[in-house]
Amino acid sequence: MPYDLILQNIGKHIHLEPQEEARFVSLLTSRELKKKQFLLRENEVCRHSAFVIQGCLRSYNLDENGFEHILQFAPTDWWTADMYSLISQQPGSLYIDALEDSEVLLLSKKDQEQLYHDCPKFERFFRIITENSLVANRRRVLDNLSLSAQQRYAMFCQHYPSLINHLPQKQIAAYIGVTPEFLSKLRKEFRHS
Amino acid sequence: MPYDLILQNIGKHIHLEPQEEARFVSLLTSRELKKKQFLLRENEVCRHSAFVIQGCLRSYNLDENGFEHILQFAPTDWWTADMYSLISQQPGSLYIDALEDSEVLLLSKKDQEQLYHDCPKFERFFRIITENSLVANRRRVLDNLSLSAQQRYAMFCQHYPSLINHLPQKQIAAYIGVTPEFLSKLRKEFRHS
DNA sequence: CTATTTTCTTAATCTACATTATTGTTTTCG
DNA sequence: CGAAAACAATAATGTAGATTAAGAAAATAG
């Protein structure tokens, strides 16, 4: 069964009894995504938290010129959602799609809130991973304000070594905030230093 | 008593019984900060969550050239902390200081976790405000990637109208990620359009 | 109230990064 | 497999925003 990974993921922060595990997995639905297939589009309402058990997703928006800007990569063992839309149940601005053939487990907002109510441990779990995500995003805000493109690329390599050889460079460029052409230049300098 | 504001702040998301309110406020300590006085410095361990009841704080870091980059303004009715340091209890990279004479209420990490344990409602409260902060920070990451300085300034004016006339421009520049000189130029264009 | 410090404006010059264009390479897929 | 599409490298040119400098205005302190 494909639930080992998500139960392990939760187990990093809270301990679940067998019947709590059973209850939890009973709420999950599975969904396969082919490469480039969308889990969510701009202006849709996000109704689920998604946990990646295979493959890799990304969430991004489009600017007024149609360029993509990547908010998050979600490889295996990561959670993803348009948090603004999920919380407010208003149309969001994010696209979420698959960078390769992938599989996700979905937990609906309604079930998630019911879980919080029935078993506060789950609220603790999501409180903790939300805190961790907040720390990472605050770090990224400050990095974008205080580091050069060269330094941001170095940080990315350091922080996500497994993604570097896995993702097309243009995706990394759209994450650190430079054009693919400029990243190509940066990498050349990198090699010679 | 100066606890009305913080109880109201909490009351926006959860309902507390009188004895829960009493328990909560008994854990708070108050601290006054003169303008420019620090609540936290780089390399210190952050041991408290802070709630501003008077004045305005800011959290920022220094880049390799000694320039300040502002992560957050915390006016009256806002929470602030170095979340990375608070969670990990490792030395952090943030400075937190007062932009004007201010007063904060402090809740220690230990007491906060005890509260979570004794009364899950508090965990819900902090889960919710952490989610809201995450949404705001993700929005800011994408704005920094996809908007021009002009547009980021316009967003700031729209999102924090009360801060615009309250803060020195150089602080706003250090928040949106431009030099004060360039912001001055932007504002001139703004006026003539 | 005055002196000092901090903040704001303006303008000239500079640079990190964007844009555009071209060519070569790799991946995808029928 | 072979054709098409996506990706990457390189280089010439363009520009948003940085840097430097200097003076004016405002806030602060003594």
Descriptive account of the structure:
The structure is a homodimer of 193-residue chains. With 193 residues, chain A is an alpha+beta fold. Chain A has two domains: 4-146, Jelly Rolls (Sandwich), CATH 2.60.120.10; 148-193. Helix content of chain A is 49%, strand content 22%. Chain A has nine helices and eight strands. Chain A has helices at residues 4-11, 18-26, 83-88, 109-118, 120-146, 149-159, 161-164, 169-176, 180-191, and strands at 29-33, 38-40, 48-54, 56-62, 68-75, 79-80, 95-98, 102-108. In chain A, strands 1-8-3-6 form a four-stranded antiparallel β-sheet. In chain A, strands 2-7-4-5 form a four-stranded antiparallel β-sheet. In chain A, a hairpin with a 5-residue loop joins strand 4 and strand 5. The mean pLDDT of chain A is 96. The A-B interface holds A 61, 63, 67, 69-71, 83-84, 87, 93, 116, 120, 123-124, 126-127, 130-135, 137-142, 144-147, 177 and B 61, 63, 67, 69-71, 83-84, 87, 93, 116, 120, 123-124, 126-127, 130-135, 137-142, 144-147, 177. Chain A binds a DNA duplex (30 and 30 nucleotides) through helix 9.
Sheet having the most strands of chain A: 4 strands, antiparallel
Beta-strand residue percentage of chain A: 15-25%
CATH class of the largest domain in chain A: Mainly Beta
Q: Which chain pair has the greatest contact?
A: A-B, 33 and 33 residues
Whole-number count of domains of chain A: 2
> Which term fits the overall shape of chain A?
globular
